[in-house]
Amino acid sequence: MSAKSAVALLAVVCAACACAADEGPGPRSGTVWPGDDWQVASPVEEGMDTTRVEDALSFAGDCRSEGVVVVRGGRIVAERYWGEGGARARTAMFSATKSVVCVLVGIAIGEGLISGADQKASDFLTEWKSSGREEITIRHLLSMTSGLAMAAPGRQGAGQPKDDEEPAIELELEHEPGTEWEYNTRAYRLLFAVIHRATGRTVDRYSKEKLFGPLGMKDTAWKSRKTAGSERFLHVESTCRDMARFGLMVLRGGGWNGAAVAGSGFLKAALSPSQSLNRAYGWLWWLNGSESHMRPAGRKPVKGMIFPDCPDDAAAALGAGDKKIYIVPSLDLVVTRLGPRTGDKGGPGESGFDNLFLHRVCFAVSAWKGAGTGPAQNPPQAEASVEAFMAAVSRMQHARIIGDVAEFRACAEEARRMWSAFPREVREALEKDHPGIGERAERGFE
């Protein structure tokens, strides 16, 4: 059987699996809130299949996860830890912090301290007056369309900043604001200064007062570095449980147990495409459901959704080393993951873990048929999965030829996980075309 036949068979098998799922309760009205501690429910109590939930957890564990929390209906339905420290283990969230900063900006707008997303950043970054950067707005910084350079003048390295953050205020304008999408972490960090000058409080203090405190995120704090008498804030450190509190608040439109934390209108905008250049990006949130997406290091759109086998309305806060906060409003799901990098390339659309893991969790919701979003109704995504497997094998073979051991191992692990996710019939079809590939995949191509 050819690879295209395997593709068609995969689509049929996935459709059959989705149709076989029993009906169960869908998303609820969301009246349960965590107190000092979370309420816990069994998967069945929240309309999820226990075996499928266990499969998702096992998959996460196989992918070097150190902690996973699954929340539905406001209660923890699954939780597992493989690393030291258990539920209190706190980890750097890296770029997942961007989604936290988005909410802080929304809170400041709600308090009238920032007039709105279209206010000029130079109203707060007064160093920009008469500098040619006056037209950059808060919206541009939230949507990665500021047009600012990736590095300050005369400084080495155009890539993303490490902990020794460069002074972002020095970044020069390279493109007219709103005309180019570029994942620019240095430019995003200018929002720290905006929040500080708009509120009169540093980003960590404002976070504690307006977000971490009200949500009961007791194990969450900002990582900072003191240099030359000043304090630079780098990123948030948090736990799986605290991240789930943040995700639940966003999932429910900015409310928390009867109180408004962030404006629902702002969050609706944040979780919508922020521009036409990369419709998979909102305001510092990654979005599913678009026909194409751009990757953090890319300058051209890539065809397909970032999580092709998951619901269209899935959104995520994603950080380096595969730090994850996923929300799926249509399924009333919040999922968090901590741990080291899974082995894939880490960016949206590059990390096979995102799609394979989140799909497993969504598939555990009894009411989800994947209508319009999953394999049952979207055969082209099945094709992408088979093609992605063969592409990983090809990259692995190239890495072996050139002696790139790290790349070989990463590609081999990616292919192994995709192989394990294929239904038996598809594996048999691929085995027929490529004898022995199954055994080699299961051994990690050692």
Q: Give the overall pLDDT as a whole number.
A: 84
Oligomer: single chain
Q: Biggest β-sheet, characterized?
A: 6 strands, antiparallel
Quantity of strands, as a count: 13
Q: How large is the share of residues in beta strands?
A: 5-15%
Shape: globular
Question: How many helices does DSSP assign?
Answer: 14
Main structural class: alpha+beta
Helix content estimate = 25-40%
Radius of gyration over all CA atoms, rounded: 22 Å
For the termini, the CA-CA separation is 26 Å
Order of helices and strands: HHEEEHHHHHEEHEEHEEEEEEHHHHH
Order of strands in the sheet with the most strands? 2-1-13-12-11-8
Model regions low in confidence, pLDDT < 50 over at least 5 residues: 7-30, 156-166, 371-384
SSE layout:
Elements: H1 3-20, H2 50-62, E1 67-72, E2 75-81, E3 91-92, H3 97-110, H4 138-143, H5 185-188, H6 190-199, H7 203-215, E4 221-227, E5 230-238, H8 240-251, E6 255-256, E7 259-260, H9 264-270, E8 286-287, E9 292-293, E10 302-303, E11 315-319, E12 323-328, E13 333-338, H10 352-363, H11 379-402, H12 405-421, H13 424-433, H14 437-442
Antiparallel strand pairs: 1-2, 1-13, 3-5, 4-5, 6-7, 8-11, 9-10, 11-12, 12-13
